[in-house]
Design brief:
Layout (H helix, E strand, L loop, with lengths): L5 E6 L6 H16 L3 E6 L13 H10 L2 H7 L1 H19 L5 E4 L2 E4 L5 H16 L2 E9 L5 H11 L3 E7 L2 H10 L1 H4 L4 E2 L7 H4 L13 E4 L3 H7 L6 H17 L4 E4 L4 H17 L2 E2 L5 H8 L4 E4 L2 H9 L4 E4 L3 H9 L6 E2 L6 H14 L6 H19 L13
Helix pairs in contact: 1-13, 1-14, 2-10, 4-5, 5-6, 11-12, 11-16
Protein name: Polysaccharide pyruvyl transferase family protein
Keywords: Transferase
GO molecular function, one term: transferase activity
Amino acid sequence: MPPAPLIRLMNVKFSPNLGDGLLSDCLEAGLRARGAAAGSIDLAARTGYGQGLAGRGKVMRLLEAMPRGLRAQAVRAPLALASARKWAPHYARELTGATAMVIGGGNLLSDHDLNFPTKLALALTAARDRGLPVAFHACGMAADWSVEGDRRLRRALAGVDLRAVFLRDAPSCARWDARFAEATGQRAKQVRDPGLLAALTWAPPPRDPGAAAPIGLCVMSHLALRYHARTTLGAADLLRWYRALARALCQDGARLRVFTNGAPEDRETMALLAPDLRALGAEIVQPETPADLAAVIAPCAALIAFRMHAVIAAYANRVPVLALKWDDKLDAFLASVGQEGWLADAATLAPEAAAERVGQLAAEGGDFSRHATVIAEAGADLDRLLAALSPAQTPIPPPKTP
């Protein structure tokens, strides 16, 4: 019997945002269940959860305050230094023995301050130098790219044995096709997010029959909203909205469970809210691993969240969600599972009305008539990935970039 293929997944498994680790763990588990030896290489060269937390919020605030031109120049020297000293050597060590590379999942095809274009270019160059077949899987792609970010990724893609581009939503596929399909010879195909396999990766904890199921509130920072999306909701407004929502839920008799996905800026927001939440009798928990995050969400009767992988983990565990609008990736996910009605805008929805809506979701249980089909499709998409990376596939050299 030939040895199992050793697939290295390039992603942000150990990101402070545990949603990234959740989808990475689910992707690894799904591939292993199909006979592949799969393991992740963190693009930031982290090797465990909790690394890289210090200073992240300060850096985001500093970059946000800079004029666009100065910001673009300020990131170049640190990126070049980290590339040479940290990231490239880490990738080289971790790729030993690999037979294929998968870039995914998560919102990796994006250009915030040249971060991912730089890291993906290093990863693709390492794959090309080793003759490894490459596929993108379940990535999201952003619309806005700098000239330099586009140039870096386009140059790195040239000459790579790119077998497939599987992206997680229709807008991402359209953006890839418009920007990179001609240069690579690969059009994007839509697949399910591997985070949908969360309930198969970790068995949901049993619900306590003697207690009401909690309503979950996943707190996200205004800073994250500002950095990754456009919003009219100010920082003080968001804190007031959270406090009023928690008060309305607790006054209605809900058992409120409040948590974050783990990002330091989200934890800071939680710390600001904590005194008021405790006074209301809310339960405050902080997951430290993706398994913890899944275990916090799975027993809930309903969830309120901005963070997409909190929403995905909830859907995987048949927990209905009041999903708060902020990024079109969330809109696209909800549309893909037929749950557009779960979406709401905290900038226009009063917290008391939000409490009423989530209470109704908890009471009714949500519509999961498509759930079994969606989960089966997420698994079948991993079969498509393995087929694309099979040695039997004949690599087609991409057209050279001009």
